[in-house]
Write a structure and sequence with these properties.
This protein is α+β, with helices and mostly antiparallel strands. Helix content is about 30%, strand content about 20%.
Length: about 525
């Protein structure tokens, strides 16, 4: 009898051990696997898991305290006084000091294209918790720029602006790194910001450059989330639609009224057919944006006739959006002298058939679908369209030489002072297309905007700039390009940050209830 009981007990113990070995441990259950396009050490987004930013930022672009706790500006926005925390340590125990912050303002800011970098006159240390920033010209959005600057150890960035020292003050610590393949991070148990401390103890960063392979990895469970490792919408619309219909994944996106950029077609307004404002205006009213969104982009983004978000302080608050009105488009073309004299279905102007060259990237499937749709809309206006698909150096050559009429190119982004710095002061062709300074009034408004010292001045000069941009029809807006992410439903709490580079995992946790 005793042997029988011992035998039964052995079997029970064996089954118990077997079941336990097949059940994932708590650590395995709480590893978050991020599917990424770029190598971890070359990703600005990935670096925010390891490094804190000097300030935080809300989705409506308002700065919040972080390492910097207080800030003031003078009346001309040329001098700022900062107060910083004195209790923050890097993960190896090294204290973050005023000297560290000074070095970061001087050397790390260019990594995220901060506008103030070109205006920086001096950063001086007043005492252990106070610094003063002096600028050569007014710049009102310095606090927003500081929300993009990460706290990196002094000399932790090389001359090529690559981060070389990955010991940070942030929520996670980089433990393992395989170049071009993966990175493994663990929770910083001594993280200073307890309110933002994550609950996920381990994160894996898996580099998958191919769209289809990345999508398959998500569907098969090899990764847990897509779309948080890039500062732009990095998931193809067809995949989003397929996964929504399958109802196997969860989603989150930026609030629709907080979009900071748009999908836009830019005109070559300097040469060729699109140098005619009447033609540009006719196209503004001749493209059915809602039909584009519904048929090409599966109804996911929001159609928009605005060149930028009017909700922002520097947005087009006084302008009306372009709306779909083909009869108005046709009237504009007729009044401007466009005729189909030989009845072949294509308009002519000054003896030339109106045929527009639409430049798109051959690497982006959505641009091909977009171009096909736009071509069909132009056909309704009796305008011909040639779609040119190129990439890399060939794309840059087309842009720099002005060899196009329409193109999907770099849009306006928040704050627009950043866009103005690159595209607002001249009428040159660049690697990204023709600049937006279409006339003297636009340049004058852009220069005044950059030197604005108050919010009222920003509204005034941004309004003057937008007035010219809308009247001259410099770009053709289509829809929002809000970020969206897809994730395994066993997690919850994902959200986007006002800093488009920042990956915020502070609210992410294992889902407590089944869906």
């Amino acid at each position: 009898m005793k042997r029988l009981l011992l035998g039964i007990l052995s079997i029970v113990l064996l089954i118990s051990c077997t079941v336990k070995s097949e059940t994932p441990t708590d650590t395995e259950q709480t590893v978050l696997k991020i599917g990424a396009i770029k190598d971890f050490k070359r990703s600005l987004e990935g670096s925010t898991l390891v490094f804190d930013t000097l300030l935080q930022m809300t989705l409506d672009y308002k700065p919040l305290p972080n390492i910097i706790t207080e800030w003031t500006r003078n009346d001309t926005a040329t001098e700022y006084h900062l107060t910083i925390r004195d209790d923050i340590l890097f993960s190896d125990g090294t204290p973050l000091t005023a000297q560290t912050v000074k070095w970061d303002i001087e050397n790390v800011a260019p990594i995220t294209y901060c506008v103030f970098s070109s205006l920086l006159k001096e950063v001086s240390i007043t005492d252990t918790t106070h610094l003063k920033i002096s600028l050569t010209a007014p710049y009102y959005f310095l606090p927003q720029d500081l929300a993009l600057v990460t706290a990196i150890k002094e000399n932790g960035v090389d001359e090529a602006l690559n981060i070389t020292d990955f010991i940070g003050t942030g929520a996670y610590i980089l433990k393992e790194y395989d170049e071009g393949q993966s990175a493994s991070l663990i929770k910083n148990e001594n993280y200073w910001n307890k309110a933002a401390a994550p609950s996920i103890p381990q994160v894996e960063w898996l580099v998958i450059t191919d769209d289809n392979a990345r999508n398959s990895a998500l569907s098969s469970g090899q990764i847990d989330v897509l779309g948080i490792s890039e500062h732009y919408l990095s998931i193809q619309y067809p995949l989003i639609d397929d996964l929504i219909k399958a109802k196997k994944m969860s989603f989150f996106e930026e609030p629709k009224d907080a979009f900071t950029s748009l999908m836009t077609i830019s005109f070559n307004w300097k040469e060729g057919f699109c140098s005619d404002k009447a033609l540009r205006e006719a196209l503004e009213y001749g493209i059915n944006r809602q039909a584009l969104v519904d048929t090409v982009f599966f109804g996911i983004p929001q159609a928009s006739g605005h060149q930028f978000n009017p909700a922002f302080t520097d947005g087009p608050q006084n302008e009306k959006p372009y709306t779909y009105n083909t009869e108005f488009s046709k009237t504009l073309l007729t009044e401007a002298g466009y005729r189909d004299s030989d009845n072949d279905g294509v308009l002519e102007k000054d003896g030339k058939k109106v045929s527009l060259k639409f430049l798109i990237s051959s690497k982006e499937d959505y641009q091909r679908d977009l171009a096909v749709f736009v071509k069909s809309e132009l056909h309704k206006l009796r305008i011909d369209c040639e779609i040119i698909q190129v990439t890399g150096e060939a794309m840059r050559e087309h842009f720099k030489t002005g060899n196009y009429d329409l193109a999907v190119s770099h849009p306006w982004y928040e704050p627009i002072i950043g866009t103005v710095t690159y595209f607002g002061f001249d009428d040159n062709y660049t690697d990204y297309g023709l600049s937006y300074a279409i006339n003297a009034k636009s340049v004058e408004a852009a220069r005044a905007l950059v030197e604005s010292a108050t919010e009222e001045q920003i509204k005034t000069y941004a309004g003057a700039l937008w007035k010219e941009q809308y009247e001259q029809c410099v770009t053709l807006p289509l829809c929002t390009s809000s970020r969206m992410a897809i994730f395994n439903p066993r997690f919850e709490g994902f959200r986007f940050n006002g800093n488009v580079y920042r990956i915020d995992l502070s609210g992410v946790k294992l889902r407590t209830e089944k869906r």
